[in-house]
Amino acid sequence: MFYLLKYFIQMKILFRNNDLNEALLGISNVGFVPTMGSLHKGHISLIKKSLYYCNKTVVSIFVNPKQFNNKDDYKKYPRNIKKDIKILKKLKVNYVFIPNKNQIYNSKNRIKVYLPKKDKILCAKHRKGHFEGVIDVMIRLTEKVKPSKIFMGEKDFQQLLLVKRYIEKKFKSKIVSCKTIRDKNKLALSSRNSLLNKDDLFKAGKIAKDLILFKKRISKKNFSKKKILNKKKELEKKYIINIEYLEMRDKRNLQISYKVNNSKMFIAYYLNKIRLIDNF
Ligand code: AMP
Hints:
Layout: H1 2-8, E1 12-14, H2 17-24, E2 30-35, H3 41-53, E3 56-61, H4 71-76, H5 81-91, E4 95-97, H6 101-105, H7 122-126, H8 130-145, E5 149-153, H9 157-170, E6 174-178, H10 198-218, H11 225-239, E7 242-250, E8 263-271, E9 274-279
The structure holds adenosine monophosphate.
Adenosine monophosphate (AMP) binds at residues 35-36, 42-43, 45-46, 152-153, 155-156, 178, 180-181, 188-191.
């Protein structure tokens, strides 16, 4: 009987802060999956985890202008709201929050996020203001949703660590990290992949496979800076790509590492003007 009832309960689509407040009044153990939409199986894995562990699940869709350091990139970012709603209905998500810029940034609460110098590495070094924008919007969304758990992907590992540090210090919400979902060619799923043509998608899969193999090979011993530099040059030449960074870092604190234990290899590169990131 309970299952049948659950089946017929409709997903609520909320556009305004007040509607969200009203809908969540008195509900405990809320799971939250913040997204920028154009949903794929990576997002779906986070949502399924939230549906499993929490009483109610809120998915937000908001392409946050503040985290784009390039206006063109913001304009080009794939948007697919109708398809997203279809996917979320099928998953039986309880609430979808689709705010506009006013709903997010109307708060009197002025938030100023500063990243210390030691954090200005990887994407923070190359995308000025990006993580300040991400942390700012995450604070605003967490204030509104008041979730017990926030589900985030390891695909954006640096984001995951930074948001965890800021949010868990300020709120009771816990960040739950979720594994990266890849396609059959090992390419990490990303909304930006829809901007790539077939050849580039294939190439990006080859780059992922190449790096997975490279990490396996060096995993038996420590390695040098030179080895990573040579790999970077080799990839650039082989795939005709522009690599922003290829670095091995400790996955606990993101310090440069020359040990494979507890480390991850991070890459950001441009394929036909589309910026892709991954970690292995
Ligand atoms: P986005 O919509 O790109 O802002 O991503 C929303 C959330 O989904 C973030 O926590 C991402 O890390 C996560 N995510 C994106 N792609 C993947 C993936 N391939 N596997 C797992 N999580 C992902």
